[in-house]
Amino acid sequence: MQLLFTDEQKLLGQIAKKFFANEWNLQLVRTNKINQSFWDKLADVGWATMLIEEGDGGSGSSLIEQGIVLEQAGYRLCSPVLYTTVQAALLCKQLNVGGISQQLTTGKSAVFSIGNLSGKTKIWASKHLDNTWTITGEEAFIPFANEVDLIFVNAKSPEGYGIFLVEKSEIEFRKQQTFGTQGLMVLQMNNVKAHCLPSSILPKQLANLQLQFAALQAIEMVGGMQSVIDQTVQYVNERKQFEAPIGSFQAVQHHLSNMYSAYRGARLLAYKALFLFDHNDAEAEKFARMAKIAANEAYREITLMAHQLWGGNGYSLETDLQLWSNRAVTTSLTLGTSLEHKQALIEQLKTNKRVEQQV
User: Where in the chain are the domains?
Assistant: First the structure.
């Protein structure tokens, strides 16, 4: 498969690359907080909400175009709040809730707690006699939930599954002690007031939505892989042993070649998945799982090999490489591990086989 972008998409990638290079830096990564100045500039260009329809303030872009932006964001280790807001924008587009979509397009940040890979959740919603709703339950590993403006949760009620916009001021937040710069939080909700979004949604639909999230996450990871490879190529060309750059040694070149091959394979799969979702292809979910598996494994392998090639410098906290390694680990655990997606693919193959035998 060959990736062929239109001239407009190529230009979008160039503009996004320049924007993130100028407006985002690793000091912002290390602070582990939302930077309001950066977020305001991001809201001005509309890249967190480009999936929302034009009538609601977005640009009605495709998943491919959103992926082009996220790839450049991943290259610079942009804040996870960008990705969570993109997910919320895609959710609002799917549910056709224009009013909330317009809140996002005016610059509000958001996060969506969707539940597990099957679209199911342990969060419970209760409807009261005055037709108001409250939410009870706990969700973990939610990035920057205490700092975003809007929090969406997937909750189960006697009427089925639904999406709720939760009253943030009533949630108890607890910071999770973990490595990396994802700002992960636990949400403790006990009869928290919530607004039920008008459109109903089934677990199967949520599972499909989550796989679209996973494909977009894979694109962000691909951007990070490319950054690690570029930094490593620069390092091995500057670092000398025996009066020669270590990049001239064949063993080092073999490792770099393997890193690049893993990166290219993951990139192709991720864009293939987004392309299929854009065209409502039945194969989209399968390719999304394959893309996330490839991204999970390639990102970790690439960062681990980069540490080896950097030698002692690769294991120093003063260098920036460890920031990409931390992101590689945390994103590989987000929206499905490799094992979870492999198991789902196996079950799908078994189901298809049984159907073939019945026919």
Answer: 7-108, 112-201, 204-358
